[in-house]
Amino acid sequence: MSTSSPAPRTALVLHGGGGPQTVAAIARHLAPSFHVLAPTHPGWDGTERPAEIDSVGALATSYLDGLVAEGLYDVVLVGSSIGGWLALEMALRAAADHRYVGVVGAVVDIDGVGAVVDGEPIADFFALDARGLAEVAWHDPERGHRDPATMTDEQRAVQQANGLTMAAVAGRSMSDPTLLGRLGAVGVPTLVVFGESDRVVTPAYGRAVAAAIPGAEFRVVSAAGHLPHLENPDATWAVVDPFLG
Q1: Are 206 and 218 in contact (CB under 8 A)?
Q2: 87 in Cβ contact with 80 (< 8 Å)
Q3: How many CA atoms lie within 13 A of 45 on its CB side?
Q4: Per-residue pLDDT tens for 36-47?
Q5: What's 5's DSSP letter?
Q6: CA dihedral 194, 198, 137, 122 (to 10 degrees)
């Protein structure tokens, strides 16, 4: 008698302000073990953003509704930057609404923004030029710097449109003053991962976020900034894989 293998667990990979290409490496890494979903958020990379998607909370509800419609449960949420905030908001809404019971199974928050932490302000992303962004976001700024002069008009237009969408959805402060105080309601296993050299949101910021979540684990990735999965992937998987295993 033949037996079929159980269906793989679903992982929903949530990108940050830089767009879906910033988490493509996460999706590739998880693909052998998970059924991976890596959507482009509405309004990014030329996609349409419905008027009702005007906050991270609204986007969280939209994704939860989509998972329910697909019959997906025990989903692992893996979010980077704004995506980390989105993953936490999804976990909070799933814990508070009977419609989403069992949908979220775990959260991996990679250098997530969203909370307001005393003494650890979020860098003013919208005030930074390309060089300034590389300086705060990368352990090695030369790797992260992309000279706008080398971009095509289309690439610049997409980048500018993504920035406008990010401001509309996440706000220019990229934070919600209520988030930190609500994190005690997260009821699923959570891993908070931060690049040691991140200056968009510092490891101390990440540690405060993890401390607010019951039972959350906190790990630091050396020689990495805001996108540790791009800058030091082996060290990132070394902390993420055991958690997911």
Answers
A1: yes
A2: no
A3: 11
A4: 999 999 999 999
A5: P
A6: 100
